[in-house]
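sry for the spam today, last one i promise. C-alpha cells for design, 145 residues
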C-alpha cells in the first residue's frame, strides 16, 4: 500500500477553513484544478455514501464516495471509485486541527492506495504535490505554481 501525506499551517481558524471544505460537492469553489462537480442522485453532499462526480480542468472525470465526515474532528474521508489515475483501494482524508496560537489551523491531507509499482513514485508526487499541496495552497490564498 502506497501512502501520501501533505501538511500545512493555514492562517485562518479551523472553523473558517472547515466552512470551505466541509461540503463534499464544493471542490470547484476552493480547489483550482477542479472544473465542476455534482453529487449523483441529488443526494445531500454531507450524506455518508454520497458520490461526487467531477472533472478536472484538463477534462479528467473522477468519481469519489464520501466515507466519513466529522464536524467535531474537522475531517472528511473519501474513496476513489473511478478515475484514470491507475490507483485502486484509494482512501484519502483531509483533517484540520486548530492551532490556538494566532487563530490558525494545521491541515493534513493523506491517502493510501495500491498501484503498479513502476508508477508509485510518479503517483506519490503527482497526488501529493500536484493535487494535495495545490489544494492546501489555495486554502492559504497562495497562487498555484
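last one done:
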Amino acid at each position: 500500500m502506497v501512502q501520501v501525506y501533505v501538511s500545512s499551517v493555514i492562517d485562518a481558524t479551523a472553523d473558517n477553513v472547515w466552512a470551505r471544505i466541509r461540503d463534499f460537492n464544493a471542490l470547484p469553489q476552493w480547489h483550482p484544478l477542479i472544473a465542476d462537480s455534482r453529487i449523483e442522485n441529488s443526494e445531500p453532499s454531507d450524506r455518508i455514501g454520497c458520490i461526487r462526480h467531477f472533472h478536472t480542468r484538463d477534462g479528467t472525470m473522477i468519481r469519489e464516495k464520501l466515507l466519513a465526515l466529522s464536524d467535531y474532528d474537522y475531517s472528511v474521508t473519501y474513496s476513489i471509485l473511478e478515475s484514470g489515475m491507475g490507483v485502486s483501494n484509494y482512501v484519502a482524508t483531509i483533517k484540520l486541527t486548530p492551532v490556538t496560537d494566532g487563530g490558525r489551523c494545521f491541515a493534513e491531507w493523506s491517502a493510501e492506495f495500491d498501484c503498479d509499482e513502476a508508477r508509485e513514485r510518479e503517483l506519490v508526487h503527482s497526488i501529493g504535490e500536484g493535487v494535495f499541496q495545490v489544494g492546501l495552497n489555495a486554502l492559504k490564498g497562495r497562487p498555484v505554481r
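DSSP finds three helices and seven strands in the chain. ok im logging off now
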